[in-house]
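Hi, does anyone understand the following?
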Amino acid sequence: MAEMLTLTEAAAKRVAAIAEKQAKPAILRLSVEGGGCSGFQYKFDLAESAEGDDSVSDTDGVKLVVDPVSLDLVAGSVVDFVESLGGAAFRVENPNAAAGCGCGSSFGI
């Protein structure tokens, strides 16, 4: 894969904490679905394992997995976990996104 996905240390720590509470492996699945206010939206889930054709990135023992279809839309992205007065959330800094929404959960190409 030419452009790898990156999971920041802050995001890796948060995934590890959530996975530990839920007694699941520390594997975050990022996928892209149609919808949202800008055309596509990000979806995050804990996964039991990576699929054979997934792209896998590792940060401090926490894996970020993305399916091939979603990867076309998020290649080169950085997944971070941010906390602010407005709340806490995973954020995707996507170099492929031409437009986005205010909440950061959807984007357009």
